[in-house]
User: Fold this.
Amino acid sequence: MSFPPRFLDELRGRISLAEVIGRRVKLLRRGREFIGLCPFHNEKTPSFSVVEDKDFYHCFGCGAHGDVISFVMQTEGMDFLQAVEDLARRAGIEVPKPTREEHDRAVRNVDLHGAVEAACAFFETSLQAAEGREARLYLERRGLDAATIRRFRLGVAPDRRDALKRALAGRYPEPLLIEAGLLRRPEGRAPGIDSETYDYFRGRIIFPIGDRQGRIIAFGGRVLGDGQPKYLNSPDTPLFEKGRVLYGWAEARAAAARAPAAIVVEGYMDVIGLHRAGFATAVAPLGTALTEAQLEALWRLAPEPVLCFDGDAAGQRAAARALDRALPLLQPGLSLRFATLPEGEDPDTLVLRHGAAAMQEVLDRALPLVEVMWALETSRNLDTPERRAALQKRLDDRVRLIADRSVQGQYREFVRDRFDAAFVRRRERMAKGSLRNRPRPGRERAPPIDPKVLALRLQQVVVAAILNHPFLLSEFEEEIAHLELPVRDLDRLRCVILEAPARLPELDAERLRLHLGEHGFAGAVNEILSPHVLSHGGFARAGTDAEAVRTGFRHVMALFQRGALTTQVKQAERELASDMTDETWARHQPLFEDKGYDDGASGGGTR
Assistant:
């Protein structure tokens, strides 16, 4: 039996997840979460986390994940209906009775599921028969082995008008097969001799499409040869609504329970290729731009899914469409990142030719949504006041789309700062330069830096180093614990980071960022790891040699511990404010270079 979503939401809202779990597990509060020993496997160190406000539990040890209903099912040995009824009694609410229409629909859907499953089995069998030879050769050329073909239940639709129809005849009535999207009738014709139904898929490799429970509900078909359309999906049916489904979602959800992540690619073969290469959270929309429902499904997998696009013009247009669809839906901690593939490569060809490391490199270079928005809007010529004014309006129009006021405010601040840095401050530097003597030949003038901004950047660099190199948490635990950053939000973030090793065994940079995103720090992390912050501390960048990281970090910590940072920056602020010359800048430059920083001009790390 299915229940109305509003009833289940009300049930979850009435029941305290921590209270239900607390009857079986001793829970300790840690900030917004509770932690305890996992009830699903033996452990001595707590790795079981309960997030009450998001209504889920997760064990970082065994991967157990779910809500209050699934917890009762697993611990009490109940099925779904029994668990819902038990929780409803506790909450004092009545379980809704299905209407006759709902009952009939449920019975009908059982028949539809049966027909679709029977069709899937037929396609699988056909692939292994003589008529599937061409399809098997194609899949072999694409690098798929027999185990992968079985795992994803790939098949082939014979290139005959009624192969499936004949195979299912007598088992399922023809109207049901039409309703399931397996047969079609010539358009505009009523049932009769001249309007005989025929198979919806013919002469195509078949990719079964599952729902969120993994049940097959539809199919995608790739043509064998040069026919059109190249890809064909099942029509919408009572089981299948194209805009609400992601290919591979059930498999990705199982993987995301162990390590929250999501990768969005374009097609079936991309998903399969990435799963084979170890990227088990890959999913794909079904030939359309991402919908609101699909974005919400992605955010159930991870707070910041990575969307992969080609680097050509079509890829840029696809990125712009995804960005526009996502902006109104952004929430604190929920956003997107965008990765650009090498020219001429798809995800599956990239891992096939160059291995998983090449794909991981693409994912590591993914940019936050806000950076992509800026890049898309500033890619055109901005050499006149009118064009820059138009840029401001376009950016403002995009930011206004964001419904959440706090996120909108952060975007507005980002746009204002980036616009000032790109145009206003550049004009100020040019004006100052025109009033001074040109620098001596062979000597470059260092750009002036607002000392207040610089003080902020130095604090951000400390946190960036820890985010990109979590091994610092164990090696400098005491120093980091006693460090107090002047910027309150950064110091709060530092405190949450300090708690992460106890909750996340085998902590790495990716797991740390995901953990912070779940605690509402995704925006702050994106800002800290942005190029305009890391340009002030090359040693903090990802991929820097560990010894160079340690050296740079020791210098920075020494500044804070001696209390020298505030004093020296204030002195620099006074002098730079009154006399921004080459000589003044050169005098203060060692303050940062000698302490493990670069000034952004060299692009290097520690010396």
Summary: Residues 159 and 409 are 57 Å apart (CA to CA). The chain has five domains: 5-91, 100-240, 249-376, 382-435, 451-593. The two ends are 66 Å apart (CA to CA).
